[in-house]
Every structure is written in structure tokens, then in C-alpha cells.
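Dear colleague,

Thank you for sharing your sequence with our group. We've completed the structure prediction you requested, and as agreed, I am returning the results in plain text so they can be pasted directly into your records. Please verify that the sequence below matches your submission; if there's any discrepancy, let me know and we will rerun it promptly.
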Amino acid sequence: MNKKINLIILLGMSTLFMHQLSASTEKEDAAISMTMDVPITTQGPLWPPSAFSNSNGDFIVLGNILKELDNGEVVSVPNQAALVSKNTIPPLDENGKEDFTNSLAAPYKVIKYLDLNDGSSDLDMVLYTNSFGPFEGHFGGGPRIPRQGDSQYNLNSFEANGDICPEIFPAQSQRYTYTRPGFALHKAPIIGFLGDDIAYDVDTGEPYTPKLRNGTECLPDGCAGEEPLHERRTDPVTLGEWLKAKVKVSITLKSYSESLKAHTRAKFSVKAKHMLPEAIYQVVFIRSSVLSGKPVRQIPHMPVPAGVLLTDKHGNAEITFDVNNPFPDPELDDAGKRVIGIAVSLKSDYAILGVCPTRFGPGVDVHAIANSLVDGTLDFTDFITKQNIKN
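Please find the predicted C-alpha cells below.
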């Protein structure tokens, strides 16, 4: 009898131990995983103020607004929606040239704050790409956004050094001459598109009518125009449609190293809903060097070569990928490799050029739709990983 009671007690203790172990494991698993909704935005970096303009070229900003306080200090106010003037005066040096060494050295010139409530006419604003060019000139800062002549100053903070992919743009003939106007988003140029009778000069960016029509009457070198093949949407993209998107990211630490007493990898899962249908988006990592990289301030890049979301006809897409050592200790990370944020951006030109995030710059051919930094969060996790050193 006593043996039977002891066995029952032992089994009960074993069961209790297993429940405690299970609870401990679940707690440990929860501690190394996180899921977050990535804020929907129209803003990538602070300069230019937005990845979209209106028909007048003023910036449609959903994200951070740079505001000057009564004491003259400029602060970044998150979770704002405003129309910002294309003639905003950016940070300037003593010679009156654009100088983005300190992004908080000048406020935005706000035309009006936007009403995003249902039924607001502000939601009907048509989205336009930012104008561009040239790549180099007498202005400070980086490549010109908006293009020269569209505004008094260059509002693009990313310098040419390390920020644009030199393998694809610009050629020497384009550095001081190439410009591009803003386009309604649904009419942004798609290189090689057969269906609009338009091609673009590789040196100047100017549109021209190609000779690509076939038929005996077109001999010997083709008729003006194209043989239609592709179709694209004909109705404009509005701010209201853009804001319907939802993006969620889950992060799980992996590959625990006993010798390092730390995880060495992480799995990322990005799920998106209600995006523009049948479109191409890219996932990009924002590393700490984007804020104060020395000597090179890195523009956000795709974390893996195939870091692409291809939406279906309902605007849904997802991707999962692993990354080695994404979260080095910030106290030891002098190169600025730590991933402090994640963003998803539309490629309006439908072009994925290797892992180059953009050919021109923010708002010209790439447009942020979700960005973990726009709510004021400058590091979205306290995870720490270490580099796995193999023998």
C-alpha cells in the first residue's frame, strides 16, 4: 500500500516537474521571440521629408515632423500627418549650403496638418513620386530631391558616398545632367513596359516614342510605338488606399552557442496585407550606421538577396528569412552593424537590381510603406546576438 502511495506521489511530483519545465521552456521561448506591427508611413529618412509628394510637389508626410520649439530647439515629433512645403529650408552650413550633419538642425515648413479620419478629403490626395536630379551639382547634401528648379534647396540627406549603388547609376555622362520629374504613382516609369508607347533615354531620362511596332508596313526598322503586351492600373493611388496596409514582423533568435552564451542567428517573418495588388515591395534593414555611420552612413539595404514581397491580387504577401548576428551589442558595435529597425518599401519601377535598394533615392523609385522608426522607436528590440566564430 505504501509503495503504491509513494508511486502516486512520485508520479505527481514528476508531473508537477514536467509542468514546471514546460512553463520554464515556454517562458524562455517567449523571451527570445517577439512580434510587432510595423507602423504604416510615407516616410523613410527624415530628409527628404516623405517618399511621396502631391501634384504641386509638396510632401505628404505620415511619420515624424521636425518642429521648432519656443526655445529654438528642433525636435522630431512622431505619429504626425502633415503636408510639408517643398520649399522647406533644410539644415545649412555657414555658406548657406545644405548640410545634413545634424538632421535636427532645421524644422519642416508645414503647410497644414492632415485629417486621416474616415470621410476626410485629405484621404483623396493622389500620391506622386518625388522629382530627382541631377546626381551631382553645386548644391550640398546628396543627389538632388526635389530636382533642381522644383524647389530652392536639395532636401535629400543621403550623400553619394556609399548610399547609391555605383554599379548601376550614374554613368559619367549622367552625373551633372540626369533629371526626372515627379509622376503620379500609377504612372511612374517602368523600364521595358510595353503598353504606353513610351521609352526613356538612358542618359537624360527624357521620354521618347520607340520604334517597336511590327508588320510589313513597318519595314525595315519598325513603326513608331510599341506592340502592347502589359497592362497597369489606370486609376490614381490615393493616400487613403495607401494607409489601409498592415505589416507584421516576427523575430525569433536561433542557433544558441554554449561557448558564446548567446544566440548567433535570427529568423525574421514579415507578413503584409492590404498592400497595392500585384506589386513589388522590398524588405530593408535599418542599421545603426544609418543614424551616425563613420565614415559611411549606410542607406537601408535588403537583408537577403531575395528580400522581396510580391503581392497577390488581394495585396497580400509574406517572406521568411534567416540572418547571421543581426543584433550585436550596441556598446561594442563601433561599425554600426546592429539592426535597429525594419522597413518595407514599394518599388514603383518594378525593378529589383540585385540587392541595391534604390537607383535614385527616397521617393523617386522606392517608397516606404512601413517603418519601425517612424513612431520614435530608435531600436526596436533589446535582443543581443554574437558572431559565431567557426574553427
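Summary note from our side: DSSP finds three helices and 13 strands in the chain.

Kind regards,
the structure core
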